[in-house]
Amino acid sequence: MMRPIETSSPTHPRSGTPDIRERRFSSGAEEAPYLRSFIAVAEEQHFGRAAKRLNVAQPTLSRRIRLLEEQLGAELFDRSVQPIRLTAAGSAFSEDARLALHHSRRALEQGRRAARGELGHLSIGAISWANNAVVPYALRAFRARAPAVSLELYITSPSAQVEGLHKQRLDVGFSAFARWMRGTPGLQIEPLLEEPMVALVPSDHPFAQRSCISLADLASERLVVLADAVTPGLVDKQVSIFHERGLSPADIQEAHDPWALQALIAAGIGVGLHMAAFSNVRHRGIAFVPLEGDAPTATLFLLSRRGEDRELVRSFLESTRQAARSLEPADVLR
Questions:
Q1: What is the distance between the alpha carbons of residues 111 and 114, in angstroms, rounded to a whole number?
Q2: Which of 73, 111, 138, 201 would bridge with 205, disulfide CB 3.0–4.6 Å?
Q3: Which residues are CB-neighbours of 144 under 8 A, at least 6 positions away?
Q4: Cβ 115 vs Cβ 311: under 8 Å
Q5: pLDDT tens digits for 215-244?
Q6: pLDDT score of 1 more than 60
Q7: 204 plus 79 within the same structural domain
């Protein structure tokens, strides 16, 4: 319990009673019970009722008021009248006393909220696929849990996310094709979402009219892919899907960002094989067509620093896991 330092309890030289003039508060925080006592007496205009309201003995309450008056060098209450009333000094003291208590309570609550991971700032990195898939749901879920947290989102490459996490510029990352990341010191990588891959074809292509398309049909066309520098591992993933089925794309065309990729496909330069969530931000000239049979899938990973001890980050990670588990295929394939 916060209280003034009273270890020595010197006595008044004439009365033999404890000399409150020798006592001093050791910190501003220890003044809170005394300020609450003052406000209770001011509002009740009676020491007995104020003591009952605070659930303290009346002599204890009286000592607290006397100590405040000694600290201020002035009487706070006119005790010569009933009900008692504030003196001029008491009235002047009252406003700041209430403000001090308000700030004290707010500081305690802010500290508790920070300890629960409900205050602070988070910097998040995500590849474009994640931004089209789980990230909006994750941010919305966390916002509902901790509306006072400031969130920054950067759409950036996997390699930039790793660097950002290592240099403390990012707190969390959303990435994919993380085989090359595994074994990176200080990095925690966990699978978050498994998503089917679909075909992207020009809207005026004959394939666009089909309910589904085979990989063999897709292999007969030029395949438009994101450059490996943009999303390391994605091209290898796409090509391996064909090779595992004894197929090879007729040709490969690189695009240097997702918007260029969709523009090239819409222009009829080729076709694409990408995650279903790309359909959430579709180009007007592109059709998304499901693949025949068991469609290949891609895994989205959640990145953080290993041994992360900030409750704010841990809370976001858990909220994101819950958001990902709640997603249905219809939420990402539209």
A1: 5
A2: 201
A3: none
A4: yes
A5: 999 999 999 998 887 777 888 889 999 999
A6: no
A7: no
